[in-house]
Amino acid sequence: MTMAATLTRGGRSWTPDYLVAIDPELCIGCGRCFKVCGRDVMTLQGLTEDGDIVPLDDDDDEIEKRVMAVHDPDACIGCGACARVCPTSCQTHAAA
């Protein structure tokens, strides 16, 4: 199902572009996207040597680096603020 464009308050056409994934290999865990998102869509997680994303409360010895991960994709409103502040372009966005 493709979502039709909606209108801004001023009546201009706008199509939401929703966050669907974050590439843990590209993400540096800076948290800029988390700071601009007021919808709790992302969360900071750990990335193991095997490439598994795990909660930070797991054994820190297994965590290779910290990365952002999609936490609640259904909360995304498609504003694109996270993509605009990301220094590594690690996010994938798509229309509904």
Portion in beta strands: 25-35%
- Top-tier CATH class: Alpha Beta
Most strands sheet:
3 strands, antiparallel
Mean pLDDT over the residues: 92
Instruction: Provide the gyration radius in Å.
Output: 15 Å
In helices, the fraction of residues equals 10-25%
Widest β-sheet, arrangement of strands: 5-4-6
**What structural category arises from helix and sheet content?**
mainly beta
Compact summary:
This protein is mainly beta and about 100 residues long. The protein contains 2 helices and 7 strands; from the N terminus they run E-E-E-H-E-E-E-H-E.
List the main descriptive attributes of the protein structure presented here.
96 residues, mainly beta, Alpha-Beta Plaits, three-stranded antiparallel β-sheet, two-stranded antiparallel ribbon, 7 strands
Explain the overall architecture.
- The protein is mostly beta strands and 96 residues long.
- It has one domain (24-94): Alpha-Beta Plaits (2-Layer Sandwich).
- Helix content is 10%, strand content 31%.
- The protein contains 2 helices and 7 strands.
- It has a 3-stranded antiparallel beta sheet, with no helix packed on it. A two-stranded antiparallel sheet has the order 1-2.
- A hairpin with a 4-residue loop joins β4 and β5.
- It is elongated and about 55 Å long.
- The model has no long low-confidence stretch (mean pLDDT 92).
